[in-house]
Design brief:
Blueprint (H helix, E strand, L loop, with lengths): L1 H24 L7 H11 L10 H12 L3 H27 L3 H13 L2 H7 L4 H20 L3 H17 L6 H11 L4 H30 L6 H11 L16 H13 L10 H4 L4 H13 L3 H7 L1 H14 L1 H17 L18 H7 L14 H6 L2 H21 L2 H5 L3 H23 L9 H19 L12
Helix pairs in contact: 1-4, 2-3, 4-5, 4-6, 4-7, 7-8, 7-9, 8-10, 9-10, 9-22, 11-16, 12-14, 12-16, 14-15, 17-22, 20-23, 22-23
């Protein structure tokens, strides 16, 4: 018990010390294009936006307590750090790792500089990552102690995460795997699986209804439609589309625009087709906007279902081409993602938008750092080869278990087996989503990086030492 109290004290002191030093170097929060979208939705109290509205409402909550950007950054940082500490103490109680192993995990989770830069951005990334880590840790506990209140807690967390980023749409797959592995009744397992699916289904239906009321189109996420069309257009230069076979008149109209606007040389795998103002998707949106006399946001939502239908048609008919032109390059990007907006403080700009100035009560639009805006790039860039290394190390550890360690695996403490399987499911589904659904950037992989490091490190320790995982808590 004294050891736990000492580590809690160390954790709190390190969190405060790191934050104070960091804010001395970076006295202002960091902004990029998404930041202003979130702030504007918060200022206008929107119920729907281009992205999930949850982070904007989090901004409203924080603003209601204190309008300071330092306060917002501290809360985001504290959430990330507390999620890591909670994960560490949970692993310590559930698996009783060796002292040196536990200390390495403890200080890795606490001294990770990525958390500081993630928290300093006015973006949903820190909130999403922190809540995801807490949710995954709750799933670990649920496998060990499948109680009804833990099921309810994971549902609440799932609902919050979903409203922050729609990436959580695949989270019920992870939850289902966990419920199937619990030592509980069939009723408990089925209730957990169904409740997890229904939580997101009802949430999506509510968003769909609000979108219909405001834009006249029933769509849950127009953004996903834009993304699907963007991804599908990477196969277009290599195919001949029979317009007569397209599933709707809107798709045929879109295809006629694509034929005239698309370049026969694809850009690098990214979201180029989504954002290029002269590209086929934006051209089609403006065509619909003029014809239907709508504002930008309404037009943006109304074309979403058409893009989704059109993209699905192309992808399902040319899966191999899609893998060659989009999937394979995307897999390489997944393994070595760009730093993106984390490469430079405030994207290298010395000023922020007026919306940020007004929201955080700045005296002017000027922001500054103690040193170069590029400093964070030098600090964070080593994490890119580290992420690549972790992926191969995790795969290698899994192969060794399958080929040489199956007997040892079968003899393991059952809950550690399940923890390894949870890690495999989470990381596998995340990889599939990141490769095929969205172009990957480093900030999307902070949660997976932490989880991958934790379980790869534990698995390697198990293979290379005499450590035998076992429960440190007594049955109540």
């Amino acid at each position: 018990m004294m050891g736990q109290k000492r580590k809690w004290l160390i954790a709190i002191l390190l969190i405060l010390l790191q934050f104070l030093i960091f804010k001395w170097v970076y006295p202002f929060a960091s902004f990029f294009q998404d930041s202003y979208s979130y702030i504007y939705a918060a200022m206008e109290r929107h119920t729907i936006s281009y992205r999930p509205i949850g982070y904007s409402w989090f901004l409203i909550l924080m603003h209601g307590i204190w309008a300071s950007d330092t306060f917002l950054v501290f809360i985001q940082y504290a959430l990330l750090q507390m999620a890591g500490v909670y994960l560490y103490f949970s692993l310590d109680r559930l698996y009783r790792p060796r002292k040196i192993t536990g200390n390495i995990l403890f200080f890795f989770l606490l001294l990770n500089p990525v958390n500081l830069y993630l928290a300093n951005a006015v973006s949903s990334d820190a909130l999403f990552t922190g809540l995801t880590l807490i949710w995954l840790t709750e799933l670990l506990w649920l496998m060990h102690r499948p109680t009804w209140w833990r099921m309810l807690l994971q549902l609440v967390l799932l609902f919050l995460i979903f409203n922050i980023r729609y990436t959580a749409l695949y989270y019920p797959v992870i939850a289902a795997a966990v419920f199937l592995m619990t030592r509980a009744s069939l009723t408990y397992k089925l209730t957990g699986i169904i409740a997890s699916v229904m939580t997101l289904t009802l949430g999506a239906m509510a968003v769909r209804e609000m979108t219909w009321r405001q834009t006249g189109v029933r769509t849950f996420s127009a953004f996903s439609g834009w993304q699907m069309a963007n991804n599908a257009l990477y196969v277009y230069p290599y195919i001949e589309v029979d317009a007569g076979r397209l599933p709707s008149p809107e798709c045929r109209e879109l295809d006629s625009v694509v034929r005239t606007k698309i370049d026969r040389t694809n850009p690098p795998v990214d979201t180029w087709y989504m954002w290029d103002p002269h590209g086929p998707l934006k051209t089609y949106m403006r065509l619909r906007q003029r014809r239907e006399h709508t504002d930008y946001f309404t037009a943006w939502n109304r074309v979403g279902p058409v893009f989704s239908q059109y993209g699905y048609y192309l992808l399902t008919r040319h899966p191999w081409l899609f893998w060659r032109e989009y999937g394979s390059p995307s897999a390489r990007i997944f393994l070595y993602p760009p730093l993106d907006v984390l490469s430079r403080y405030n994207e290298g700009e010395s000023e922020v938008d007026e919306t940020a100035k007004e929201w955080f009560h700045y005296n002017s639009t000027k922001v500054r750092t103690l040193w170069s805006p590029d400093l964070q790039s030098y600090i964070l860039i080593p994490f890119l080869p580290f992420w690549l290394f972790l992926n191969f190390a995790g795969i290698l550890a899994g192969i060794i278990f399958l080929l040489r360690g199956r007997a040892k695996f079968r003899g393991l403490y059952k809950d550690f087996q399940k923890g390894l399987l949870l890690a495999a499911v989470y990381l596998g589904v995340n990889a599939a989503f990141s490769i095929f659904a969205v172009p990957n950037v480093f900030r999307y992989q902070i949660g997976p990086l932490i989880w991958l490091f934790t379980y790869t490190f534990l698995a390697c320790d198990l293979l290379l030492s005499e450590w035998s995982p076992g429960p440190a808590i007594l049955k109540e």
